[in-house]
Specification:
5-stranded antiparallel beta sheet, 108 residues, 4-stranded antiparallel beta sheet, mainly beta, single chain
Length: 108
């Protein structure tokens, strides 16, 4: 697993979880990101620039106070696979990084 971090044009921190490699038989992995109220948003590239959390009908779920975010892999299993960008709101880059590094990775 890889965690990519950078700063957006507006100064907000951005994170992306991605698999370094995978096989067809591998399960879908998820990052369980610690959540505080309105601390972040999740966007996807499909269609370009779509906010998927918080949003109605979101593929992102909140489980036990953590956002369950699919991790990008090289195998597209269905139309909902893709990159999910986590964008911090009113969060210092260091705090945002710490929260993402503390995320639990699982395949449930």
């Amino acid at each position: 697993m890889r965690l990519y971090l950078w700063e957006g044009k507006d100064g907000r921190p951005i994170g992306l979880f991605a698999r370094a490699w995978c096989r067809l038989r591998d399960p879908q992995y998820y990052a369980h990101v610690p959540l505080t109220k309105d601390s972040c948003e999740v966007w996807t590239e499909r269609p370009y620039g779509t906010k998927v959390w918080p949003a109605g009908g979101s593929p992102i779920a909140v489980v036990d106070g953590r956002l369950r975010i699919p991790i990008l892999n090289g195998i597209r299993r269905d139309a909902t696979d893709g990159a999910f960008y986590i964008i911090g709101n009113d969060t210092a880059f260091g705090d945002f990084r710490h929260r993402l590094v503390a995320s639990v990775i699982g395949d449930e």
